[in-house]
Amino acid sequence: MEILSHLHDLDDEQCAALAQQGQRGAFTALVRRYQDRIYRFLLRLTHSPDDARELTQETFLHAYQALPRWTPQARLSTWLFRIARNLAFDWLRRGKRVEFVPLNEDDSEGGGEGYGAYCRDPAPGPDAVLETAQRYQGLEAALARLPTEHREILLLREIEEMSYEDIAAVLDLNLGTVKSRLARARAALLDKLPR
Fold first, then answer.
1. Does 127 lie in the same domain as 62?
2. Mean pLDDT computed over every residue of the chain
3. What does the pLDDT look like over 115-130, one tens digit per residue?
4. Contact residues for 192 (Cβ-Cβ < 8 A; gap 6+)
5. CB of 149 within 8 A of CB of 45?
6. Do 155 and 92 reside in the same domain of the chain?
7. Tens digit of pLDDT for each residue in 80-138?
8. Residue 174 domain-assigned (yes or no)
9. What are the distances in angstroms from CA 25 to CA 5, 7, 56?
């Protein structure tokens, strides 16, 4: 248990160095840190939970196999996202996807009745919750209709909160191209949002 807590305190590069020395627990710690983020990124690129799970596994398999060649000059997170992105684009090129964006998604989950008249609920009322859910669905649908290059750059910047430099490393672009592509992607998203 001490070994696991020790790995928890290490940064990504230290864990990667230990994993390069053959400590599998260190690589497992890295997988735990990044698997959810990589999965969410791939899910939004592929629109398929099954394929996103498979591509997430492939990402970490490729990373494990390439780990001996990884150098600390590249941030581990950008390296992992670059592997995931390349695998997703290979998958997209192979034509394994069907672009389908339903007009009316019903992702709302059934909720409770609230607290009733005896206790004032500080949460937003049903109208506000419905409006927020509709905005979120509209945003997700608009994002799904964007070309992949726009969708991926928005996901990396707005969802993963990567710096422009890290995005440039993941996408293998220069900084100016990242900024201009991000501006075009934001404009395209605004154009696709329901009014």
1. no
2. 80
3. 444 445 455 566 665 6
4. 142, 145, 146
5. no
6. no
7. 999 999 999 888 888 755 444 454 444 444 444 444 444 454 555 666 656 666 666 76
8. yes
9. 11, 8, 19
Domain end among 55, 71, 99: 99
pLDDT at 127: 64
How many domains, the chain?
Answer: 2
Domain final residue, candidates 99, 132, 166: 99
* Residue 162, C-beta contacts closer than 8 angstroms, at least 6 positions apart: 77, 78, 81, 156, 170
Look up the CATH number of the domain holding residue 180. 1.10.10.10
pTM: 0.64
Residue 91 carries which DSSP code?
H
> Among all chains, which residue has been given the structure tokens 């969708």?
151
Domain that holds residue 160: 119-195
The pLDDT score that the predictor gives to residue 11 is 87
117-135 burial by CB neighbour count: b if 16+ within 10 A, else e?
eeeeeeeeeeeeeeeeeee
- Cβ atoms of 27 and 48 closer than 8 Å: no
